[in-house]
Amino acid sequence: MSARLALLALAAAWQAQAVTPADRPLFDGVTYRQERRGDPAADPMVIHIVTLDLTRPGLRLGVTPPDRSRGMEYVAHTVRDALIANHAQVAVNASYFLPFFGGSPKGDDYYPHAGEPVSVSGAAMGGGRVASPVEIDQDLRVSAILCIGRRTDIRAGQRCPAGTRDAIAAGPHLLQGGQPVPLHRALIAEGGKGPRTAFGLSTDRRRAWILVVDGRQKGYSMGADNGTLVALFRELGASDAMSFDGGGSSTLAVAEATGPVVLNRPIHTGVPGRERPVANELLVFAAPLSATKK
């Protein structure tokens, strides 16, 4: 077989593997699928997509409430533990936070550990309580805010309308009105491939998507950059989208009958599968599927 035919055969085989799998229903109005894209040998990418039907009466979004018991805005915990503590059906990491130290490879010298105090960068609300104020100059990545109240919306900046009960300021802001949002020039060089967590909304605000892309794991998934996230959200039908904290924080957990399950493969201190303690989460509350069959 010629080299050209061999390449065409490899491309055809990969295209066959990259057929979009069917969504798996998790809860009423909540579905999940995992996709594998890219060159499986050189640049694989594993994507986790949670689709939310915001019109379902039993489905609502929330944010982890603040916890100032240790003297800061939150007490660090894993996404899995937040899912349990808040009786949610889906949880995904949300805000950037400080203090933070990534730790040495495979080590335990990272910060924060579970139970240690942290504060988030930018505005945040959880359970109707303000966790963090507007902080314009703390982190250039924080350029958009998810506002949850009478209406779920993504806005530029860090301010939400009256009636907002939960909010997450993070970024970069990816899409606004269907158009890519230009990156701040200081962030362009930092926008390489890595683990990502992001959230998008349809134009009519009836549908939402949580995206988690695994990364920094050779042979499994190298991750995504901001341009890839924009393309993915456009493909899904989103008009507005924003990133949350990524890297070793990217974790997606769901409640199953046997207990909480992490659907993606996070990487913390270079260890695949190791969960990083974070500050807060976007929470999804939904009715079980059995409730829709009555």
TrEMBL record:
- Which positions fall inside the Phosphodiester glycosidase domain? 87-285
Which superkingdom? Bacteria
Keyword Signal found: yes
Signal sequence range: 1-18
One Pfam assignment: NAGPA
Which key words tag this protein in UniProt? Signal
Protein name as annotated: Phosphodiester glycosidase domain-containing protein
Instruction: Identify the taxonomic lineage of the organism of origin.
Output: Bacteria, Pseudomonadati, Pseudomonadota, Alphaproteobacteria, Sphingomonadales
